[in-house]
Amino acid sequence: MELPPNAVPARILVIDDEEAARFGIHKVLEKEQYQVDLAGDGQEALRKIREFSPHVVISDINMPHMDGITLLKEMSRLEAPPPVILITAHGSEAVAVQGLRAGAYDYLAKPFEVDDLRKAVRNAAEKQRLLESNRRYLAELEKTLRELKNSQAERIQAEKMAALGRLVAGVAHEVNSPLGALSSAIDTFGRAYMRITELLASQSSGPAAEKTASLNSTLGQTLQVAQEACQRMDLLVRTMRRFANLDHAPLRRADIRDCIETTLTLLNHKLRHEIRIVKDFENTADIDCYPLELNQLFTSLLMNSIEAISGAGEIRISTWQTKKHLMIRITDSGHGIAREDIERIFDPGFTTKGVGVGTGLGLPTCRKIIELHRGTMEIESQAASGTAVTLSLPLAGLTEAG
């Protein structure tokens, strides 16, 4: 048999307790340009299967200590066992059929023709080659599917962030005008209120004066409520603009604590009274970063923590600095992540929140944002023991090329 150019000869393992039989089969296969190794019993065969990684195994059925059927069963425990051709004595075809049921590829009854041996080995080697090709293609397909899921997650995230920017810009524009008018009107009302208060103070006492003073007090309280409401609305608009990074370049030096505070302000409506936020911020330097992306990162991580806590609980946010990195750690007292799920949390589409609740894009997107910043993210979690996420971001050196 002539091999195609650059083809690697198939590896064949021959197992027989009779040396003469091993030698004869070896000679035939060697002429066919196969790589051949030999074993005298089943135990030696199992060792050589692990070391030699044969494409095809030829085994006698009748061997001491471990017969061919037992060897087949042992080989079936391997991750990808090679095809096995059994050799049986004449009249033992029933045993050979038992071997086929146990997973053998083919069998030859002694005495067999050399051409029959060549044909059986050639077919088995071709089957193994096709199986290995299919495994490679399947691995490539799975890799391609993962890449497609990742790119889809990135595309969805980019669209979400672009939509967020448009939404925030629109809200800020629409709210600023009436908010300015309202603030001006309240300011005018406040000055008028002060003037009325001064005039009332000069009037004489009496039932009418007491009633007027009561109404004046009510107006004062209403004025204070209106002023506080305008201040809150103004803070919310400015927070939204900072969150979406509307007034700055995408890549800039920023204080990471501002990003966290901005995110906490926007998530305030999600924080139930029984969830306590503990901040342990050390003095840290500004870093080169994309604040919009980091805001999205913190939003996703903090939302995960909030949703993981049932009833009373705590979320602790810590920042500190090493020689070259800024560190952020977010820990919660929530229900944690099961051990069997921890390996899959970064797979796009995987979620533990249930159908229709989670999209499975949060943590994969977070990892992409960290990779954009040339940082690292580590997650430690146990079921019923909470979760800790540790982020490491370089202090400097980030460029637009990412």
Structure, explained:
With 402 residues, this protein is α/β, with parallel strands linked by helices. The protein has 3 domains: 11-112, 3-Layer(aba) Sandwich (Rossmann fold); 149-243; 252-394, Heat Shock Protein 90. It has 10 helices and 12 strands. The strands form 3 sheets. It has a 5-stranded parallel sheet with strand order 2-1-3-4-5, sandwiched between helices. The protein has a 5-stranded mixed sheet with strand order 7-9-10-12-11, with helices on one face. A two-stranded antiparallel ribbon has the order 6-8. β9 (313-321) and β10 (325-332) form a beta hairpin. The two termini are 54 Å apart. Residues 1-6 and 355-360 have low confidence and may be disordered.
List keywords for this structure.
Heat Shock Protein 90; alpha/beta; Rossmann fold; 12 strands; 402 residues; five-stranded mixed beta sheet; 3 domains; 10 helices; 52% helix
Label the CATH architecture of the largest domain.
2-Layer Sandwich
Shape: rod-shaped
The CATH class of the largest domain is identified as: Alpha Beta
Determine the mean pLDDT. 82
- Distance from N terminus to C terminus (CA atoms, Å) equals 54 Å
Radius of gyration: 37 Å
Q: What is the strand arrangement across the widest sheet? A: 2-1-3-4-5
Summarize the helices and strands and which ones pair or pack.
Blueprint: E1 11-15, H1 19-31, E2 35-39, H2 42-52, E3 56-60, H3 68-75, E4 84-88, H4 93-101, E5 106-109, H5 114-201, H6 207-243, E6 252-254, H7 256-266, E7 275-281, E8 287-289, H8 291-308, E9 313-321, E10 325-332, H9 339-342, H10 362-372, E11 376-381, E12 387-394
Parallel strand pairs: 1-2, 1-3, 3-4, 4-5, 7-9
Antiparallel strand pairs: 6-8, 9-10, 10-12, 11-12
Helix pairs in contact: 2-3, 5-6, 6-7, 7-8, 8-10
